[in-house]
UniProtKB/TrEMBL annotation:
Keywords: Membrane, Transmembrane, Transmembrane helix. InterPro entries: DUF389. The keyword Membrane applies. The lineage of its organism: Bacteria, Bacillati, Actinomycetota, Actinomycetes, Pseudonocardiales. The chain crosses the membrane at residues 114-135, 141-162, 174-193, 213-234, 241-264, 276-296. It comes from Amycolatopsis albispora. The keyword Transmembrane helix applies. This is DUF389 domain-containing protein.
Length: 313
């Protein structure tokens, strides 16, 4: 269940109440007259089934509440109510399968911004990857995978493509296009410094190592990227964020960037090119799979909403 709070201009409150009271997925309706100060208006609250949220929000946006009032959603961890149980049963579809599109847009939009925090995490992840390469430490490579923040912009690109939100695609694309080169450039400086001070040398990459999978491109590179992209988008759209950790440690994006830098500094150009190709395959595969999953979920949600009545009448 989700808790909805809407600030409504007084002349639209009756229509807001009509939207909520008529929908089978809404319950626990509360109205507090003249409670809102900025923006001024009435406060309307309700608990809604997750699978009904998208339709209810769309109906409230038709009333321009997003421009002349406000709409907020919060997750309810526990709801002890027969009315809430009925709302979830009567709402179309299943809660775990429901996508709250405005929530998804807000989440991916926030995570796709190019800012100091994003660049810092990506740079630290690339530096960790470089250390993992020169020390042949799979544990450090996994750490770099977890620290890397690149899935946020990749998911945003997929969401933007499916919803045709080109502003989101541009913003996320900018974060990736600037973030990876910047992180790799800083990692390049650290790698050159490490070689100059004798922390490692070309012998670090010669022979067989546990981390050689990073630059070895094959069919499984694309397969893993597709599976990770699908799992990541399923996690984001179903609010099961714990699964994202598995996504982070299954794709070779940041490790490939770090390996490419180390290999370039040590003049191992074959391995450098292989790492860059690995990086591109993973980035593209994640976006493609995430977009496909999003399109399938959107189609399934629309089908579910037409199969069951939405109004109480």
């Amino acid at each position: 269940m989700l808790h909805l709070r809407a600030v409504s201009p007084p002349d639209r409150t009756d229509r807001v109440l009509e939207v909520l009271s008529d929908h089978r997925g809404a319950t626990h309706l509360v109205v507090i007259k003249d409670a809102a100060i900025d923006p001024a208006g009435d406060v309307v609250e309700a608990d809604i089934a997750r699978e009904a949220a998208d339709e209810i929000i769309d109906a409230l946006c038709v009333l321009d509440l997003d421009h002349h009032g406000g709409i907020t959603l919060e997750v309810i961890d526990t709801a002890l109510s027969d009315a809430a149980d009925r709302a979830e049963e009567d709402a179309p579809g299943e809660g775990a399968d429901a996508v709250v599109w405005q929530e998804l847009l807000g989440r991916t939009g926030e995570e796709s911004r190019l800012n100091a925090t994003f660049l810092s995490f990506l740079t630290i992840a690339c530096l960790l990857a470089a250390v993992g390469v020169v020390t042949d430490s799979s544990v450090t490579i996994v750490g770099a995978m977890v620290v890397g923040p690149e899935f946020g912009p990749l998911a945003a690109v997929a969401v933007g493509l499916v919803l045709r939100r080109w502003d989101l695609v541009r913003r996320a694309g900018l974060a990736l296009a600037v973030g990876f080169p910047a992180a790799m450039l800083i990692t390049l400086g650290g790698t050159v410094l490490g070689e100059a001070t004798g922390l490692f040398n070309r012998e670090s990459l010669i022979g067989d190592h546990d981390v050689d999978f990073i630059y070895q491109v094959g069919p499984y590179s694309l397969i893993v990227a597709l599976l990770a992209g699908a799992a990541g988008m399923l996690s984001m759209t179903s609010a099961k964020s714990a699964a994202l950790v598995g996504v982070f440690i299954s794709v070779t994006t940041v490790p490939a960037a770090g390996y490419a830098v180390v290999a370039a500094v040590l003049n191992e150009w074959g391995r450098c090119i292989g790492s860059v190709v690995q990086l591109v395959i993973n980035l593209v595969g994640i976006v493609v799979a995430a977009a496909v999953v999003l399109m399938l979920r959107r189609r399934g949600q629309r089908r579910a909403s037409t199969e069951r009545p939405l109004s109480r009448g």
